Amino acid sequence: MAGIAPHNAPRNFQEHLAALEKAGLLVRIDKPINKDTELQPLVRWQFVGGVPESERRAFLFTNVVDGKGKRYDMPVAIGVYASNPAIYARGMGQTVEDVGQVWVKAIQNPIPPVVVDKPAVQEVVIKGDDLKKPGGGLAALPVPVSTPGFDSAPYLTATLVTTRDPDNGIQNMGTYRAALKATDRLVVRMAARVGGAGGWLHWQKYRERKQLMPIAIVLGTAPVVFFTGPQKLPLDMDEMSVAGALAGAPIKMAKCVTNDLQVPADAELVIEGFIDPMTLEPEAPFGESNGYVALEAYNMPMQVTAITHRKNAVFSAIISQVTPSESSVVKKVAYEPLFLYHLRDTMGVRGVTRVVMHEPLSNLRPVVFVQFKRGTLRTEVWRALQGAATFRSDVGKIVIGVSEDVNPESTDAVFWSLAYRQSPHEDVQIINYRRGVQGAHYQADGGNRFESSMLIDATQKRPLPPLALPGKEYMERAKVLWEELNLPAVSAKGTWHGYTLGDWTDTWERFAQRAVAGDWEANGVETSKRRRDDLPPETPTAKHEKL
Ligand SMILES: Cc1cc2nc3c(=O)[nH]c(=O)nc-3n(C[C@H](O)[C@H](O)[C@H](O)COP(=O)(O)O)c2cc1C
User: Fold this and answer.
1) 134 and 195 belong to one structural domain
2) Is residue 484 part of a domain?
3) pLDDT-based confidence at residue 442 (cuts at 50, 70, 90)
4) What is each CA distance from 372 to 67, 163, 397, 462, 509, in whole angstroms?
């Protein structure tokens, strides 16, 4: 990959949808679908129904209704940003393999946005009394219920919540959920903890000043713009300058109609308003990506002052909750390469080859696997395990090191390593005083104020005998034979052939070669000459002979 070209990322949301549809990656549903009871559960099936990751699709619902029989003009797009890594990469205009490096380069080489007039996102402006009309304002938007049966309201989910630091004027954008409360009121949830939402840090400053905090919630942007929302960028780094670098051109911004914030001019829809930082309103229950339903808590109410949108706007939502989901894919594709970059290039750990975050159910951040070249110094292994546990305050409750022959995407392979390549008294360390993983405070006892990390070195530390499967060439030949015999289809997945792991001698190699050539009797002739009568059974020969 040269530089961060090619910059053929879609330039706006609808261009992205068209590209997905052309590539056969978008399913258009014209049948009436109830946004409160059917829409999210339908898309959920592709995450819980055994559909292979590569077969997951984006969805566009063109005929959205609700429980009261109301029909919405705006279509709803969901799963369009990150139903799988291929959809994410397409939105970046890159291959899946290049995504990580592209992020690193974009963060290092930001391109500042430019301000334009007459933005597409303000083709339609709704404000004043129109926001208060029954069925108007937010109620006119087809906002789905994410977790029917548990959620307390329809929620905005695919958001870029924009706020500005009142001290330095730098804007922040984050993906935060927002609950519909009235036609002109939302409650936004900005994680209020160390390493929490950038918007929350701004909120604290406005609260100190006793001033209203301007806020704009942007929906439906070019993926390169949206992806900066859930990405954890350095504080005080304007997300739009990183998006510009990802797009290869400045992002066009426009001033909001009713406050001074700037929003992407080509977005589908923007909800403008103010948060009164002196008051909080109950928000949730809402199904979270840690796999549990977030229970009701006091969060930040937003008074809506305008809704602006394109004439033919498409409403966008993200499917989150229990992972895998769009919410975990969007993080996995970006976080893993950033962690590898941190360990390998910033910390300079020698031997580290891969970082994988465990996705199903656990939602990436608590459990992290770090892979190393065989023979990596143990001190380097430990540096990497510690680095992975401390790089982000919310990542790395359990960090497990494995060797290069163990695929960290396979929990079976990791457990195999844990079973045979580590011993807890030597290879496990507990590091105290880290904050709880996301959602720890939902535990019945309120959660521990402090948690800890467990670091496990399950790498191969000494020579091991070969893996006990036929060698690769024999398995490959047998596969051809299998297919000739029309036996049920097989594919080479996981561990499917034997290989050496260091404990192997020329003698045993010679024996094995003779065995496959039918010359096993020659081995018998050799071993008969090596007989001993001074040792107990099961004494390893290699202890007494040079083999
Ligand atoms: C689907 C989705 C929903 C999220 N919801 C929230 C949320 O409600 N509140 C929050 O603070 N973070 C939420 N996050 C995580 C933030 O987007 C993430 O921490 C991001 O880095 C925040 O950006 P910031 O550091 O600029 O605030 C969510 C992430 C995703 C992918």
Assistant:
1) yes
2) no
3) low
4) 53, 41, 19, 14, 27
Distance of CA 173 from the midpoint of ligand 1 (Å): 9
Residue 248 above 80 pLDDT?
Answer: yes
Domain containing 529: what range? 505-547
Calpha distance 388→397 (Å, rounded): 9
Residues 309 and 429 in one domain: no
229 CA to centre of ligand 1 in angstroms: 7
Tell me if 482 is assigned to some domain: no
Pocket test for ligand 1, best of 152, 160, 165, 175 (most atoms within 8 A of CB): 175
- 469 C-alpha to ligand 1 centroid (Å): 45
Tokens of 541: 């020969």
Say what the pTM is: 0.92
Same domain, yes or no: 518 and 400: no
Position 20 scores a pLDDT of 97
**For position 406, which CATH number holds?**
3.40.1670.10
pLDDT digits (tens, 9 = 90+) for 448-478: 578 899 999 999 999 999 999 999 999 999 9
Residue among 43, 103, 173, 176 to mutate when testing ligand 1 (max atoms within 8 A of CB) = 176
Helix (H, G, I), strand (E, B) or coil at 163: strand
Atom of ligand 1 nearest to the CA of 191: 11
Shared-domain flag, residues 242 and 387: no
DSSP class per residue in 403-441 = ETTS-TT-HHHHHHHHHHS--HHHHEEEEEEEPPPTTGG
pLDDT value for 100:
85
Q: Which residue has the higher pLDDT, 441 or 139?
A: 139
